[in-house]
Write a structure and sequence with these properties.
This protein has 19 helices and no strands.
Length: about 425
Amino acid sequence: MMANEALRRHRNSQRWTQTQVAERVCAQVQAATGRDPELDANWVSRLERGAITWPSGDYRAALCAVFQVASEEDLGLYPKGSAPDERPAEEAPSDDVRSLAADTELSARLARHAAETNVNALVLEQFDADVERLARDFVSRPLPLLIPEIRTARGAVFRLLEGRQHPSQTRHLYVVAGWLSGLAAHVSLDLGDRSSAATHARTVVQCAEISEHSPLRAWARSFQSLAAYWAGDYRRAGDLAQAGHGEGRGPGAGTIKARLLSLEARARAAEGDNRSALRVLALAHEARSAAGPDELPGVFSFPEAKQWAYAGTTLLAVGGDEQTRHAIGASNRAVELYHAGPECDRSPGDLQAARLDLATAYLASGQVERAGAKLSEVFTAKVFTASITIRLRNLAALLGSEPYRGAQSAVDLRAHIHEVTVRPALASNPTEPR
């Protein structure tokens, strides 16, 4: 009795157990004949030991189908009395024939390898739907409810990427992984964890490069600019935003260019480059008028209300009586648009930021009472994101300087700001830091 090494090699190349082979053969026979055979690992073991060399025709056909080979001989199967080593010497194949057969088997293996995939169109479609839903929900839904969903979806995508799929499917998965990593980056930034946010953002950039996806790449730059701004590195924030809209491949369609230009304008103003800030701000308004639909909604889009809020922050940083008046107008417009839009698309954090800009602008123009009224609207929130906390503390510092230092209303406002900012930052209603 001679062991069937050919069958064993085929099984090992597929990384199947003997039980798995038996199950596949049973399924194949049932599909072909309607019978439900009772085969198990012991039957496959007997085949590999050479105890069975020529199973019945249905089983031989099933084995050939399971292993995708052309004939029983490829699996080392033969009728009794005609073992390969018992053939006359003149029937032994020549070296050329062996070489040809080996080349043919190599092509067959490549074809089988190329056909294997662990995803399909429905899986990818579901991931796309999950990303769209999470991006929309991130704007207004409580963050503690979203964090587990984001983590679960990312884990599922990462596990699939460790397997095998067609190149176009791999690129699609990397795009999904990039958007989900972007959501994770926002979670970290809202929590004030800049180091983790930076790690997630680098992952987004890597996914964008692998998938060659321009909108994802541009969005990653916008997020990095955002993070640099809230770290106080205004020059880097401006340069990252400029790189995002100035790369040769372009940022893609949608509102992303308006977003990048608005980020750059705000950073230039914070840096003190007022001329560049106003020039880029005008370009941002032009980009808005030319923008097409966004690929994704919610946190990955750039609504008009948010653009007016960015404009208000930029004009306020430029300063001067005229620009402060324009800042009040822009921030008021942002608040109006946020209130006019659907509640599910309304970002509580962005609305708070626009109100804080209004309060700061009113202070700059000497209207302390109106500033207090806007702050009272902000104080109604139970929790704040890290960026809103930073804004409140900056405003408290302004109230502690001349000419407000001695005013009782300013003292009261500073005390109230201190009271609300010592609470834990974040977030039953978080949003993207502005």
